[in-house]
């Protein structure tokens, strides 16, 4: 199985997608419909999230294994340190290796129930994401990713300190980073510049999400940790009561954002899908990132 770095290091721009594990049978049907719908588009990799506090660990493992064994896709499994001893983490990492998963996103994670609650490490666990990166590295030939925060992690005192933490994770052995959601290209590009200024050249993938409804906009604000930019709000708010128009403008906005990022040389775009496929397919089609049957790029 190829690594994420291998998949994003080609000559053409690519994209990846992120799913969360299903909560019930209905969710599972919806998830696998989206996975099968996006599979022919050949995303660089598929990311499967890990619930807060490790709450979805078993579902994440099971879903990741199915992607590895039943599809042509390259899976990347999430792994968090919350509520896990080192022995448990070793077990999960070993299980990923056993089913052929080579790519792991190592994140410390937030306290369950309250993301801003007091962080209490497991007495036999690890405290920092950099420690988790080293642990994964020790246990096999994995490609390791970490999280990046364009607006800074909520617990960081300032952007410079947050950037130092990110560079520390990369220098601990991570191969790449995936950025949390943001609203303007400059928000991501400034993060990339801060990392480069510290002499670190690891690839950082921008995280984007199609804004198809007022609910997805609220979710984007929640995931980004920052309010929507004034420019974005000015374009979307007039259509808050017109779902079709809101969706059309939202897709236009995300497409424009992605076009700017591609023009700035990002190696891949990482789409937060909310376990849906239609909007992501529409955006990557507009961007010309959908391979045709001959393996060439075809523009919409």
Describe this structure in words.
The chain has 300 residues and is α/β, with parallel strands linked by helices. It has 11 helices and 10 strands. It has helices at residues 4-8, 25-38, 57-70, 86-98, 129-138, 159-171, 185-197, 214-224, 230-236, 243-263, 278-286, and strands at 14-19, 46-48, 75-80, 103-107, 143-148, 176-181, 204-208, 268-272, 290-291, 297-298. Strands 1-2-3-4-5-6-7-8 form an 8-stranded parallel barrel, surrounded by 6 helices. It has a two-stranded antiparallel ribbon with strand order 9-10. The longest helix is centred in the last third of the chain and has 21 residues, at 243-263. It is globular, with a radius of gyration of 18 Å.
Annotate the secondary structure layout.
Layout: H1 4-8, E1 14-19, H2 25-38, E2 46-48, H3 57-70, E3 75-80, H4 86-98, E4 103-107, H5 129-138, E5 143-148, H6 159-171, E6 176-181, H7 185-197, E7 204-208, H8 214-224, H9 230-236, H10 243-263, E8 268-272, H11 278-286, E9 290-291, E10 297-298
Parallel strand pairs: 1-2, 1-8, 2-3, 3-4, 4-5, 5-6, 6-7, 7-8
Antiparallel strand pairs: 9-10
List keywords for this structure.
single chain, 300 residues, alpha/beta, 8-stranded parallel beta barrel, two-stranded antiparallel sheet, 11 helices, globular
Largest sheet: 8 strands, parallel, barrel
The residue ranges in which pLDDT falls below 50 over 5 or more consecutive positions are: 293-300
Class per helix and strand makeup: alpha/beta
Q: How would you state the average pLDDT, rounded?
A: 90
Portion of residues in helices?
40-55%
Beta fraction:
15-25%
Shape: globular
């Amino acid at each position: 199985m190829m690594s994420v770095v291998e998949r994003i290091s080609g000559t053409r721009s690519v994209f990846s997608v992120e799913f969360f594990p299903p909560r019930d049978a209905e969710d599972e049907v919806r998830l696998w419909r989206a996975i099968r719908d996006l599979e022919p588009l050949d995303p660089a990799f598929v990311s499967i999230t890990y619930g807060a506090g490790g709450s979805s660990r078993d579902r994440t493992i099971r879903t990741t294994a199915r992607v590895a064994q039943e599809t042509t896709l390259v899976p990347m499994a999430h792994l968090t340190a919350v509520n896990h001893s080192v022995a448990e983490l070793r077990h999960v990492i070993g299980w990923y290796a056993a089913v052929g998963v080579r790519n792991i996103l190592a994140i410390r994670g937030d306290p369950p129930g309250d993301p801003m609650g007091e962080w209490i490490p497991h007495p036999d666990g690890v405290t920092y994401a950099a420690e988790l990166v080293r642990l994964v590295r020790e246990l096999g030939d994995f490609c390791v990713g970490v999280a990046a925060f364009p607006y800074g992690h909520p617990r960081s005192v300032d952007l410079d300190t947050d950037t130092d933490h990110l560079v520390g994770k990369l220098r601990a052995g991570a191969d790449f980073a995936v950025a949390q959601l943001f609203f303007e290209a400059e928000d991501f590009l400034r993060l990339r510049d801060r990392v480069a200024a510290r002499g670190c050249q690891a690839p950082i993938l921008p995280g984007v999400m199609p804004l198809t409804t007022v609910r997805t906009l609220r979710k984007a604000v929640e995931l980004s940790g920052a309010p929507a930019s004034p420019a974005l709000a000015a374009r979307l708010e007039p259509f808050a009561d017109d779902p079709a128009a809101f969706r059309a403008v939202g897709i236009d906005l995300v497409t424009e954002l992605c076009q700017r990022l591609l023009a700035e040389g990002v190696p891949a775009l990482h789409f937060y899908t909310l376990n849906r496929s239609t909007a992501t397919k529409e955006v990557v089609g507009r961007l010309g990132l959908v391979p045709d049957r001959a393996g060439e790029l075809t523009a919409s």
